[in-house]
Please model this.
Amino acid sequence: MIPRVRPHTLALAAALALSPADTRPQRSGGVPEPSADDAELRAHAIDVVDYTLRAVLDPVLHTVHGEGRISWRNTSTATVRELWLHLYLNAFKNERSAFLRERVGGRGSEQPEDWGWIDLRALALHDPDGTTSDLLRAIDLRRPGDDDETDARVPLPRSIKPGETAVIDVVFDDKLPAIVERTGYRGTFHMIGQWFPKIARLEPDGTWAHFPFHHLAEFYADFGTYDVTLDVPAAYTLGATGPVVDTRIERGRRVERHVQSDVHDFAWTAWDQWRSIHERIDGIDVTVLFPPAFEDMAARDLAAVRFALPYESGRYGRYPYPVLTVVHPQQDAAEAGGMEYPTIITSAGAWPTPSGVRLPEIVTVHELGHQWFYGLVATNETLWPMLDEGVNEFAEIDAMAKWRGDGSAADLVGLRVSDAAIQAIVGNMAVQDEPVAQAANAFSSGANYGKLVYARTAAVLETMARVYGDEAVGRALGSYTRRFRFEHPGPDQLVGAFADVLGDRIASTLRAALFDKGWVDYVVEGVSSRRSTAAAGVFDANGARVTIPRGDEAGWEGSALVVRRGSLAFPVDIELVLADGSTRRERWDAENSWKRIAWHGPVALRGAVVDPDDRVTIDANLENNHGSAEGGGAGAPRSLERATYWTQLALQAIAP
Amino acid sequence: VRDEEAIRARKHPLAVLGVWAWETGLASVGAWPAASLVRAVYGNDPRGDGPLWTPGAHALLDLLWRDAHGVSEAARALALALAIGAVAGLLPMTAMMVAMAHGDPARRRFAVNVSGALDVLPAMAALLILMTAAEALAVGAGVFLGTLAESLAHVGLGEARAQQLATAIVVPFLVFAGVMGVTHDLARAAVVRRRAGPVGALVAGAAAFRADPLSLAWSWAWRAIAAVVPVFAVGMVAERLGGRGVLALAILAILHQGVVLGRVALRASWLATGLRRLAPFHHLDASAR
Model:
């Protein structure tokens, strides 16, 4: 999922002006070669739970009638005597749901214009003797003192042993809400996620990882096969998880069967206005569904996939599914935009979005990245949101930078703003407040969740890529995504992958940044420069006696004192700027908290700059990264010139 | 009888320079707080304020966030300068028109031109209020009707088509507002040359436009287009030039001021056209004889 308003982007854009040629370090562009490891990539997930469902949409009443069968296998080491069932559509049933109680601000915080819910009509467990046991009578929808109905406990009449499979018949009716954050309707438009009763994930030790539908997190489930038959009016176009294996028109209805293995969710969309374009990209059938007259947006979404799909496949392991569908909703259904589901993602952007504003590209690349960070590497979003949203935000800024360079967020008449710069600034806003690595509902606010989970995680990884090498960080992440493909790793596995590739010290830096509110601020504390005078007196050297008078000038001497504040340390360059305009660089490992660099030479030391190539993007304050000897500053003539020019143009625009 | 051929911007370069000087002075005052803020933060950087203008804009974003209070103060100063310019700019513009209409190119008389401008300023101010209100009304009506059409057509046509329909509805109103702007300038010419009051000037301006609408519209339009092109052209040059180093900065400043001056000259050229079209009646009689 992507926050609807990317903090500060628009406001900042207005203040920016022409930019010169880049002097920052550039990472090599292009698509990485497929890793040799890909030949050994796991082909399939362990199949835990299979859903065979039929869903009938009434687009007038905005209801879905569903029925089918769930086959769930106990893959834990413990015998199970209850199931936990997620009924997440009930998040929109009333204001007592956990989702609507947790109005943390931002997207999805408004009360739905029309309520939505899921009613279970039947829930029957198949018994070994061929009969069935009704599970509905004993179902426990609520906890004491809590009216939330999204996390139901289902006591079982018999135990399910390790390795045993429970087969459950289910019948349910959905009433969809007016579109809210991810699911619902707007007119005849329907985006349908979290719509069926879904079994929570059983951890290997036999504990259930079950949660109510929290405002800031919703995904964590076992892999399996989804075989879903969708039934909608014939005039409607469908998009859904997995490829279409059968389609027909029956009595004025479109009936489409989608089957996909190795996934842990299923979402779909139905609308009588969808237009579509198709392209085969990197061996995958890609479809973009878009509203009338959104052709330009669809083309931009497709272009983003054209770059990012092979790029991410090369970096994080081959995309394993035969299809990918990008859904581009209208702005009046923007709550449906910026979401991820297996093989189906939603983008965002109004139809006249200027080409220099990269919103559709960023959202598409972000949601596509979730196919790895959430999809294939199926981490617990509720417990560790940074593992999907945070790492994926880095995947986004990395891919966008490779594709669009320094203008990866905006490129407007010389104004170039990078996605990485925005994340760096936003991430710094809340770093002192609370740690990045915590459960989604532990964050003090939705704003801090966004700043820390998304931006700070991405900025930390971007800093590591710039300091220790893009290739090395790419290898660490690639190793993590390949090793834990179709698995459910935690933060230890991510940090462990960094330790394996980059060493324990760097891994501990990553851990400190994520778990311990780690921060760093490099400061040029002082710069001095003066005429050096040779020591006066009589000296014997090389068999000769030399008298040096007092006050004999022998060039210049000076020093720069650079300090590292904070708990993190990254090696940085320190640049000495000399009076003749030339520069000298020195590498500092920053293990100690300060370093003094002495200067002796024929010209004066004008000043010093720490991290001149902007590698440590999480530096808490860029304004103290420089210092000058007295009179060594260069002022700000360029800013005065630009500010005056733009004010002149503004004056002319409104002059009488 | 005044030589109508003398009423050309190129024959009154000092008048054009005067307006440029006014705009530059006011802009410098308006931009000063912003520049001071940058100087306070980056003035001590041996690279100057170069990092602020690095592609990717990391340092610039950092400054905008970290110094949000200073930025808002600078924005207020800028807004104040623009507000002053929008009202007080009437005087230098009128003085330029007076200079072109009545001044002898051979004799540059600043005080006389300003005095002449002050004489007609009440009528010019009344015109400004009247026509600004009328143009705002036209644009507002267009936006209202466009929004209404969009909301009615949203379901049937879809969001994009409905918004395109709204745009199509707004455009004629914008064109109409543009025509009012042209008429406004012609009325100003009538004030300067015929000493007409605001209503009489509007009638005269409208009559002049009605007499030759295409020629006048084109005369205004090509100058408007020509005023936009160099902004983008120099923007592209500036991007390549960068602006680091004294020489690059000097070239950039010259180019920028060339753009500003050129735009003032184009505006003056258009106003001169209006002044020629709104010659005093006795001039027209003399021409007829």
Remarks:
- The two ends of chain B are 12 Å apart (CA to CA).
- Residues 110-157 of chain B form the longest helix (48 residues).
- Chain B touches chain A through 79 residues (CB under 8 Å).
- The mean pLDDT of chain B is 92.
